[in-house]
Amino acid sequence: MTNRQNPSLNHLVSYHLAKVDHYKRLKMASANNPALFHQYAEQQYLNKALAHRYEATIAEAMKPKGDKLLTSPILTLLRNGGYNLYARHGEATIGEDQANMNFQDCSTQRNLSEEGKRQAMTYGEALRSLYIPIYYPVLASPFCRTRETAELAFGKENVQVDPFWLETYNLSSNSSAAEQQRILNNLKSALEIPPPAGSNKVIIAHSFPKGIGLGAIPYMGTVIVKPRGVGLGFEIIGQVSLNELQV
């Protein structure tokens, strides 16, 4: 994961990871080769010094700027992985969702505005700049606006359309109480599953009606969800806007 805004930080990260890998290999080799033991002992001091420098530099880069609400403790949690990031698509003001809507025909749907496209690209860059590890593929609702948001943020090759997330959109319709409960039960089952260790799962979909599910979400807003495991539900850590994500 790279930071286009800070090439020197990218270099430090690459150098640090290369040295850590070398140190691990040397440690393993020295266990069966006494001749390498002194090299390993010397490398211990160098590795510790590099680690301190690396951690201090990253900590400085991760400091909240201005009035950001995405605080360092939350950043630390996200950088360690284990969360589901549920985001609403970018601004969509062009067209409308027609009664005969076809997911393969974007002219039958609301689509991203130019601002929405900019928001989507900024979103992906923001997560990369914050060194938040993402598990691929990113999941997207089948609408054109959600697919395009995900593709602009993370690259078309890293996006998978998941029809399940259409259910979020359906919550906003005049569905019965029983249908709403069914959808919310399915939502719980989906969000309580943790992503692979050390990564975060991103879902690009839709807002919810106020007070239902994850609640109202602004364009490109993200709800941070902590999954508790199958059958154990999930915890909402908080919601952040696109502005709060930007470094």
List keywords for this structure.
single chain, 247 residues, alpha/beta, Rossmann fold, 2 domains, two-stranded antiparallel sheet, 8 helices, 45% helix, disordered N terminus
Question: What do these coordinates show?
Answer:
The protein is an alpha/beta fold and 247 residues long. It folds into 2 domains: 7-62; 72-245, Phosphoglycerate mutase-like (Rossmann fold, 3-Layer(aba) Sandwich). 45% of the residues lie in helices and 16% in strands. The chain has a 6-stranded mixed beta sheet with strand order 5-4-6-1-7-8. It has a two-stranded antiparallel sheet with strand order 2-3. α1 (7-30) packs antiparallel against α2 and α4 (114-129) packs across α5. The longest helix is centred in the N-terminal third of the chain and has 26 residues, at 37-62.
What does this entry show, briefly?
The chain has 247 residues and is α/β, with parallel strands linked by helices. Helix content is 45%, strand content 16%.
Note the topology.
Blueprint: H1 7-30, H2 37-62, H3 72-80, E1 84-88, E2 92-94, E3 111-112, H4 114-129, E4 134-140, H5 144-154, E5 159-161, H6 166-170, H7 177-191, E6 200-205, E7 222-227, E8 234-240, H8 242-245
Parallel strand pairs: 1-6, 4-5, 4-6
Antiparallel strand pairs: 1-7, 2-3, 7-8
Helix pairs in contact: 1-2, 4-5
